[in-house]
Amino acid sequence: MRALLCGSRASFSRSGHKPLVKQVEWVE
């Protein structure tokens, strides 16, 4: 699955946890 980052990409890398649905959309 591909993740489209709507917000800051750095926050996803730094967090290390699964991205929030609000910030990221998961597309098959």
The H/E string reads: EHE
Beta-strand proportion: 25-35%
- State the low-pLDDT regions, or none: none
Count of folded domains: 1
Q: Helix amount, in percent?
A: 25-40%
C-alpha Rg (nearest Å): 8 Å
Query: Total strand count, please?
Result: 2
Shape: elongated
Helix and strand composition category: alpha+beta
Q: Name the average pLDDT.
A: 58
Q: Reading side by side through the largest sheet, how are the strands ordered?
A: 1-2
**Biggest pleated sheet:** 2 strands, antiparallel
Number of helices: 1
Cα(first) to Cα(last) distance is 4 Å
Describe this structure in words.
The protein is an alpha+beta fold and 28 residues long. It has one domain. It has one helix and two strands. The chain has one helix at 9-15; strands spanning 2-5, 24-27. Strands 1-2 form a two-stranded antiparallel sheet.
Quick structural overview:
This protein has 28 residues and is α+β, with helices and mostly antiparallel strands. The protein has one helix and two strands. It has one domain.
